[in-house]
Amino acid sequence: MEPGQWSGLGHLERDLILTDEDFSRIRQLIYQRAGIVLAEHKREMVYSRLAKRLRHHGLTRFSDYLEKLARQPDAKEWEAFTNALTTNLTAFFREMHHFPLLAEHVRKSSGPVRIWSAAASTGEEPYSIAMTLLETLGPRASEARVVATDIDTEALTRARAGVYPVEQVRKIEESQVKRFFHKGRGQHEGLARVRPEVSSMVEFLSMNLLAPQWPLKGPFDAIFCRNVMIYFDKQTQARILERFAPLLKPDGLLFAGHSENFSYISKVFRLRGQTVYTLA
């Protein structure tokens, strides 16, 4: 066995062979495909997530899997490869301080409200936005729309279903649970489904932020791009921010994640409050 084939795996025996060269190639491919920068310490994560794809194809070497991808640049497996390496960490009303700000902003707006959730994951964020609009706009909410995009097609499938474990929904205020969710019974016991008045406001689209063309048009009252820029390098972050700018209304808001700071990346936006930006 060549040195480095089991680097970072400790004493655990593995049935699949991931060499240093394979890992380097995977990092390069996911950066090219999705702009995601995988650090050296993510080797274990890469192994565990892609191992399922290798076993699915009856392969034992990561090099064989990567060659299979290289031979078929338009194959469906590229989607599975990207899905496997995409991190989906989300929750209803995550970073709660953003939603009162959103409510205050749309309350003063005129015309139909449009919001873009640019990293929709499994749907908790866009549904939280939709609930906020319903609570804030009253009859005007019938014209409001949330566009929700993500690169992970498996996550979007779950998002469209709008079904979540009750334990996850219990973190929301009881009044919101009663108004916006159906609790499952019988074989659906322990699950909750988003009510149609919420789900009908949200349109889910598969989209890569690195794609040369985006399948949506502005202007938006607000863009939520939270906890996704941390996976990109600064050059990619700056390019995406510049593409956000013309899609926002002049007084529109850009919401970032708690660990993200756009002030030092682009002069297009200026900080308005805690991880909230407006056009400069």
Automatic annotation (TrEMBL):
| Reactions catalysed | L-glutamyl-[protein] + S-adenosyl-L-methionine = [protein]-L-glutamate 5-O-methyl ester + S-adenosyl-L-homocysteine
Q: Which organism is it from?
A: Billgrantia bachuensis
* Entry protein name: Chemotaxis protein methyltransferase
What CDD domains does its record include? AdoMet_MTases
EC number(s) in its UniProt entry? 2.1.1.80
Q: Which domain of life is it from?
A: Bacteria
> Highest lineage ranks of the organism?
Bacteria, Pseudomonadati, Pseudomonadota, Gammaproteobacteria, Oceanospirillales
**Gene3D superfamilies found in the cross-reference section:** Chemotaxis receptor methyltransferase CheR, N-terminal domain (1.10.155.10), Vaccinia Virus protein VP39 (3.40.50.150)
Using the record's annotation, list all stretches that form the CheR-type methyltransferase domain: 11-280
Q: Name one Pfam family in it.
A: CheR
Keywords for this entry? Answer: Methyltransferase, S-adenosyl-L-methionine, Transferase
Q: What is the recorded function of this protein according to its Swiss-Prot or TrEMBL entry? A: Methylation of the membrane-bound methyl-accepting chemotaxis proteins (MCP) to form gamma-glutamyl methyl ester residues in MCP.
